[in-house]
Design goal:
Layout (H helix, E strand, L loop, with lengths): L4 H10 L1 H4 L4 H4 L8 H19 L3 H10 L4 H4 L15 H8 L5 H16 L3 H23 L6 H10 L3 H11 L14
Length: 189
């Protein structure tokens, strides 16, 4: 084994997030919901945008968004209702197990990111949490525009969870927008 064997194992484990589905959408009747990785990708972009308006570091916020659901490789995506019946291990502890074989530089970066996201003490962590909630709202709006009538509570719950002015303002814009409006705009240069 080489020095980077731990990092290789961690990266291979993260591949599961590309196959694991966001299980809460099954409750809404979505047959093929987005994967956890798909959710995390857009969450990272949403986080950059929120951070850029809130005076936070967009790169740090995006990084927190990118890793926020990585513990789900070990526990899955537990829907909100499931959290009333299950006690999941703390994400910080899961991440410690996930990164135990990584070298110190990678282990430190990954553990610090998960701890920061979970503690919610920095502006970047708060922007990242809002990005997580806002991405759920965006997905619900998209499903709603596809004719799914059972997602309004996801929109309402996500909206109620937002803390930053930017996230709340973006949510209002997204709720009132046509998800395919971009398709009809073209600026000739």
């Amino acid at each position: 084994m080489t020095e980077l064997a731990g990092e290789a194992g961690y990266l291979l484990e993260l591949g599961l997030l590309k196959r694991a589905r966001r299980s809460g959408w099954w409750i809404a009747g979505i047959r093929d919901p987005e994967s956890i990785a798909e959710h995390s990708w857009r969450t990272a972009i949403v986080g950059m945008i929120i951070a850029s308006h809130e005076g936070a570091d967009p790169a740090r916020t995006s990084m927190l968004c990118s890793v926020h659901d990585t513990p789900e490789t070990r526990i899955g995506d537990i829907p909100k209702i499931g959290k009333h019946y299950l006690k999941a291990t703390d994400p910080v502890d899961i991440n410690a197990d996930q990164t135990a074989e990584c070298t110190d530089p990678a282990r430190t970066v990954l553990r610090d990111a998960i701890a920061e996201f979970e503690a919610q003490q920095t502006i970047e962590a708060r922007c990242a949490r809002d990005a997580d909630k806002l991405e759920c709202l965006i997905q619900a709006v998209e499903y709603q525009h596809q004719g799914v009538t059972t997602v309004q509570r996801w929109i309402d719950n996500s909206l109620a969870a937002l803390k930053t002015d930017t996230a709340r303002d973006l949510a209002t814009e997204i709720i009132n927008a046509n998800p395919l409006a971009w398709e009809h705009t073209r600026q000739d240069r």
